[in-house]
Structures
1.
Amino acid sequence: MFESRTGILLIAGLGFFALAFLSNGLVPILMYRDMPEQTAEEVVNRHLLIQFDDLRSRYPEGFAKLVRHLGHDPEAKPTPESDRQLAAETLRYARKLYIGEACWHCHSQFVRPVSNESRRWGPVAKSWEYQNELQRPVLFGTRRVGPDLSREGGRRSNDWHAVHFFKPTSLVEESVMPEYPWFFDGDPNHPNERGIAMIAYMQWLGSWLPHYFNNYVDPRLAEAQP
Ligand code: HEC
């Protein structure tokens, strides 16, 4: 067996399998075993809360619907703690929508270290970015009919997203992205609980990076900023 070509190929195949298992499975587990997985509450940050506040003042009716949908009282006076809680629950809800609507069929959430992707989408994705509840399972996606979304936060305004979800071709003429009328109670100025949650989720993506409002700037320039 060891003299034949197939024997050598078999052993090489098993060897490479073991190597891949070691480098892609065991090594990351050992590297990240001391890094606790963060909860949704822990990944809510200042950048997202700014957007959340904007959504509340821009779309009061839809926002109230979202708060009610999450089982809270829309009349209650918001505090920093209640906002953090609400934002975390919104992200959990929106992630389910993102999966249910199969957004991941057309969008990836992973900037790869090849083909100068960082020039187009911002910093290459790092493993620690996926070490939280909202990445279980991770939403790397399978292909890219549309752009990568892992640095979408801060790239567009909330009302841009509303109009885009309502009718993508009204902003990008050649877009093949579907329309999502069920994110709205009428026109693009009235996103409902689904629309608002999805916009908040878009604004969260990449919000953990320091240069939030210009992630799409050439990362070499972004990194030079204080
Ligand atoms: C059939 C494939 C397809 C599906 C499904 C799809 N998209 Fe898209 N999406 C695209 C394409 C193509 C573009 C680029 C053209 C455009 O901006 O409309 C895009 C663009 C976007 C953009 C704008 C990115 C930017 O800043 O330019 C966002 C945000 C987005 N999609 C989010 C979503 C979300 C959320 C869902 C699920 C609710 C979704 N997409 C479903 C194909 C898709």
Note: Residues 98, 101-103, 105-107, 145-147, 149, 152, 155-156, 168, 172, 175-178, 180, 198, 202 surround heme C (CB under 6 Å).
2.
Amino acid sequence: MSDASDVHNRGGFTAFIFAMVFVFSFFFYLVVIHPGVDLGENVVDPRAPTKDGAAAVFNMSAVKEPWTSTPEIITYGAKVFKNNCSVCHGNEGKGDGPSSASMNPKPRNMVEGKWTQGEGIIAHYNVLVNGIKGGSMASFQHLKTYDRWAILHFIESITQNKSKDDPAKVAEFAKTAN
Ligand code: HEC
């Protein structure tokens, strides 16, 4: 009887030692050998410098009149669009982003520009602030004001249905818009 339980205990002891050796080797591996996981690797900062020299020195927050389009603003706006809108509207704004398939109504094809919330850049600005009720187009009020203008200038640059808003009226609107 006592022999049998000795054998049993020895088995348990061996298993225990085995487990401890495993745990400590694994611990050693994690702490000393494993290179670690870089949690920051997928975070894209639209303001981060790029290989493109012009974009590297461009500082959108310093632009005095962000409601007036420039080539630098459009390049910058394309990046902000990519980070915030592409998942639904697609990188090229054609309404075919990876999340668009199951949506009804579908994300707007910006190139086509069949606007339903009013024509022109002021109407689009209001869509960004308020979103569109009854669908997946949320409010983007949390974006910086200048980032919203940059995105809108990018959309203007790709759409076939461009804004006919009077620039003076847009400037007037921009001064009161938040
Ligand atoms: C989660 C998906 C989603 C994201 C992200 C998204 N949209 Fe939309 N967007 C939609 C959908 C869906 C519609 C169409 C809604 C409708 O027709 O009711 C739409 C419509 C629009 C329209 C059309 C307005 C009009 O008058 O017809 C504009 C402009 C627009 N989005 C801009 C943007 C911008 C700019 C961003 C990024 C800052 C963005 N959207 C991010 C889903 C999205």
Note: Residues 1-36 form one domain.
